[in-house]
Structure to design on (286 residues):
């Protein structure tokens, strides 16, 4: 029988040799709140230590994998400086620690993706070892359009410098087939086949000697660490704090923060989306 544990923002089930974590805020498009991040970290630590578990699947309830980090409770303006630095480096909540719980987990983690996988959601999927998505999946870093650099800045390693520059200079989204062409995902399947495709991959990995899989994960991680991936991620923490907390450096950021403080986050997001209507329509129709 599966071993289910109660959580507030995720579902966690162990059915050896596979553990499944489900982001469970579908009404918020699985935005990554602090509470959700802490619960994911706790579940991943448990699965990583369980000798009966060979593979971890990270999936999401509803129509989207994740719309990114939950910024609904964050302040704008000058107060954002200390708030962002606390988030990025504070006890238990550092974004670098969010990276580490995936990167350093001894078990391979498969991201099962449908719908929007953007901003911090895309970062989270990128932390995973493998990614399998449905045909309706959309990927990107639209948060840069409101002044936030992409975290973590690992796309040059994943999809190459040229495409990384394009996506991180425009905030454009890409579809599932483009993600597969770029090797951002391992497989694209119809939505009805997504569960089976992920299970088949997990079952195959689970048949290998656990020590072999763990060794190979460490070996691959080491190769990227020697290329400087950790230094880039650590540096991106401070850069994001500065960018999001310095509205005076950009009239666009200043206007976004002004609208957010006076009319609310949804109004600010709507204003920003309208600025890119022509470009987004062109990319959708080409």
């Amino acid at each position: 029988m599966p071993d289910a544990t109660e959580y507030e923002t995720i579902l966690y089930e162990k059915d050896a040799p596979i553990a499944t974590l489900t982001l469970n805020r579908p009404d918020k498009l699985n935005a990554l709140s602090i509470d959700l991040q802490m619960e994911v970290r706790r579940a991943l630590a448990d699965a990583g230590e369980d000798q009966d578990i060979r593979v971890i699947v990270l999936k999401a309830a509803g129509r989207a994998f994740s719309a990114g980090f939950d910024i609904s409770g964050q302040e704008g303006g000058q107060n954002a400086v200390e708030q962002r630095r606390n988030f990025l480096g504070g006890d238990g909540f550092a974004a670098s620690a969010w990276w580490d719980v995936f990167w350093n987990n001894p078990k391979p983690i498969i991201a099962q993706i449908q719908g929007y996988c953007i901003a911090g959601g895309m970062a989270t999927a990128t932390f995973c070892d493998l990614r399998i998505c449905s045909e309706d999946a959309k990927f990107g870093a639209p948060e840069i359009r409101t002044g936030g650099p992409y975290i973590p800045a690992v796309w040059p390693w994943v999809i190459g410098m040229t495409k990384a520059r394009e996506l991180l200079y425009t905030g454009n989204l890409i579809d599932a087939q483009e993600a597969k062409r770029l090797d951002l995902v391992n497989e694209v399947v119809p939505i009805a086949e997504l569960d089976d495709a992920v299970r088949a991959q997990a079952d195959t990995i689970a048949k290998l000697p656990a020590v072999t899989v763990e060794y190979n994960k460490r070996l691959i991680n080491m190769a990227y660490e020697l290329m400087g991936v950790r230094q880039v991620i650590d540096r991106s923490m401070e850069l994001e704090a500065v960018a999001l907390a310095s509205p005076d450096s950009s009239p666009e950021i200043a206007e976004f923060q002004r609208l957010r403080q006076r009319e609310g986050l949804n109004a600010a997001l709507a204003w920003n989306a309208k600025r890119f209507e022509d470009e987004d329509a062109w990319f959708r129709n080409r």
